[in-house]
Amino acid sequence: MVLAYLVAAGMSRIGRREETSRELVVEAFKEVLDAVDPSSIEAIYVGVQSEVYEHQIMYGALVAEALGLLPKEAYRVEACAAAGALALHNAVMAVRSGLVDVALAVGVEKMTAKSTEEVTDALMAASDIVDQLSGVTIPAHYALIARRYMRQYGATEEDLCAVAVKNHRHALENPKAHFRKAITVEDCLNSKPVATPLKLYDSAPISDGAAVAVVASERAARRLTDTPVKILASAVATDTLSASQRDDMTWPAAVWEAAQRAYRQAGVGPGDVQVAEVHDAFTINEILMYEALGFAERGKGYLLIREGQTYIGGKIPVNPDGGLKARGHPIGATGLAQIYELYLQLTGRAGKRSTNAELGIAVNEGGVNSTAVVHILAV
Amino acid sequence: MVLAYLVAAGMSRIGRREETSRELVVEAFKEVLDAVDPSSIEAIYVGVQSEVYEHQIMYGALVAEALGLLPKEAYRVEACAAAGALALHNAVMAVRSGLVDVALAVGVEKMTAKSTEEVTDALMAASDIVDQLSGVTIPAHYALIARRYMRQYGATEEDLCAVAVKNHRHALENPKAHFRKAITVEDCLNSKPVATPLKLYDSAPISDGAAVAVVASERAARRLTDTPVKILASAVATDTLSASQRDDMTWPAAVWEAAQRAYRQAGVGPGDVQVAEVHDAFTINEILMYEALGFAERGKGYLLIREGQTYIGGKIPVNPDGGLKARGHPIGATGLAQIYELYLQLTGRAGKRSTNAELGIAVNEGGVNSTAVVHILAV
Fold it and tell me: Which residues form the Thiolase C-terminal domain (chains A, B) (predicted)?
């Protein structure tokens, strides 16, 4: 089997930034320059959610120019918040196709120059227009899921908040995180409502940021680095956009499907995973991810966080960088921010938040789990 | 070398349509159902320009659902008007990577529900925001190129109009074209100004439509069809978005670069091409494409149309379906509309507009030639 390798990764500081999207990409890219001679990059795939934030499309050529990489192949991939991991998936396909030897995956979003209302409207485009006409925003869709999950399985608002508490705790050791502030379950329960039962501290913030990953063929990887990370699996699956069309709204079918494909590609199972980066756009979704990745049985994911098993040092550490909740959630960048964290974890660069893991998984999704992207990496 | 094969193609009627984008995709997809069992499709790549037209992103999952193909891999690719050909390029990479056996490329755009002002604004996002702030619209950028080209090489407004006359003539035999009406050079010269020297009849229309292409590995292609078309080359290159940053605005450097790569991949040269589909968003651009594809020397492309050499029956027939100008230009669909035409031409399905070609080339571009995609197909 022709494998692809992750040979370097970079990330900007995440948060409320003054820089434009292209400047954030340049910041993230600088971090890979020790490992990679830019001239070796043959193709660039850029994950961006929305043209609205900067009134800009064509991010492929834009990024190629900003990085001094014209006239290389470059274009954009998109499935809302899954765009970042899709950029990596595209880079993996490009390398495995033999058409390019070294590819750059880029994820970026510049959101904070827009109002919360404008961002909510731009994100709402990730719902089927049919649902949009019914007035279901993205937070409302997650709120429906949370309510239904709690009723069906007995989870509580405290369990949801426990996810936020963990991710804020983890982010204390992440110098690039949007938030580095410990919170308590009470802080979360008392925070203002966003879409009841979800509160402000159940919700990932609106952030600016960029992340990049360099993917290479085996031959090129050997030339470029002594610490290549194997990309054992890269899988994508889809589900209906509309909340009303799913058999069970608490079950992220596309994530399950992508994870099953990824486990088959990699020849491993949930028990082999030592660290996970999952898509906690809202706290409820981290719990759903525990189940869809096979870390817990269906309907029992909330027990994992209740027992503290997903902290660093627990049975299966999840989001050691703080996740979307505390690291931040610049939409198009998020999937590659997850990969950046796995890269640090697997190559012994994670410092005080190290999990000592040698095999990790990342799940990035868009459109409330309607497009799921799962990667499995190992050293 | 692992080749990918085009095994089927479909296209909706192009024009001012009442249907939504997903309905247009279903219409185009019906045309491939004779050749392809939908269950054999493993991945879908969708080219769409803008989220503004239907307040919708996530076209991957949306299209997968509309075609009954959930939970297959599906996502969007974008580089403005090059999105359609990029969907094909992605499908080629997917098949060549060995990760999928059969992939579906989809291009679609639903534009006419918006006003001309809204469409112009959405397209302007394909310029670097720096140029947008200067007020340079996409038609204005092409107008600058036309003026400069005429001054530099001696072409006339009549030469530009001759491209429109040819493409309207060709579309008379295309039942799916947006316009089936012959025009004269005088009609064109007297049409109302869009961005002087470009007039209405120098300009591709705002259209709705969809096109699809099915790409398969050699093994799958043999199973699916007796008339597979070889995808000899699929190449992408980029140039600066900003008009002010190009050395010579009359030279489409990314198109030249993509064409050079494609000719190398295919092991052929311009003299081997028997039919071409080129990106005549404005008439001037068809002339630039003659030069960038190597059909004419730099600065001499206009002589080809002046001499009538790009008509069906001429030395090198260009846009036998009517091109963007007369077939129509639903932005994200255009690149695959070109591939649809090559498929018909190379498999003896082009009826009265047949060129009897066995090798053809297509060039699709976005952002005024800042992202170029070139495919070479042969039987």
Answer: 236-378
Cis peptide before B252 (omega within 30 of 0): no
Residue whose entry in the numeric block shows the structure tokens 């292409």: B213
| Nearest chain A residue (CA) to B68 | A240
Query: How far apart are the C-alpha atoms of A114 and B61, rounded to whole Å?
Result: 27
Q: Which of A20, A23, A62, A232 to mutate to test the interface with B (most CBs of B within 10 A)?
A: A62
- Interchain pair B71, A254: CB under 8 A: yes
The amino acid present at B243, given as its one-letter code, is A
Integer Cα distance of A378 and A29 in angstroms: 23
Query: In the predicted model, is pLDDT for residue A3 greater than 90?
Result: no
Q: What are the pLDDT digits (tens) for B166-217?
A: 999 999 999 999 999 999 999 999 999 999 999 999 999 999 999 999 999 9
Q: Is B158 exposed, middle or buried (0-12, 13-18, 19+ CB in 10 A)?
A: middle
Domains of chain A: 4-114+207-229 (3.40.47.10), 119-203+231-378 (3.40.47.10)
- Measured CA to CA, the distance from residue A66 to residue A355 in angstroms comes to 35
Q: Using CB atoms, which residue from A90, A234, A370 is nearest to B58? A: A370
What's the rounded Cα separation, in Å, for the pair A315 and A310? 6
Contacting residues of A for B60, CB less than 8 Å apart: 79, 238, 371
ipTM of the complex: 0.98
Rounded CA separation B374/B372 (Å)? 7
Token pair listed for B144: 């600058």
B-chain residues near A241 (CB < 8 A):
58, 61-62, 65
Contacts of B131-137 spanning 24+ positions with Cβ under 8 A: B131/B241, B131/B242, B131/B243, B131/B244, B132/A55, B136/B243, B137/B195
Residue reference for tokens 């050499």: B309
| A58/B367 touch (CB, cutoff 8 Å), yes or no | yes
**CB spacing of A239 vs B71 below 8 angstroms:** yes
Q: Which residues of chain B are modeled with pLDDT < 70? A: 1-2
Measure CB to CB from residue A238 to each of B71, B122, B239 and give the nearest one. B71
Output the pTM of the full model.
0.98
Residues A145 and A286: beta-carbon distance below 8 Å? no
Cα–Cα distance measured from residue A165 to residue A182, given in angstroms and rounded to the nearest whole number: 7
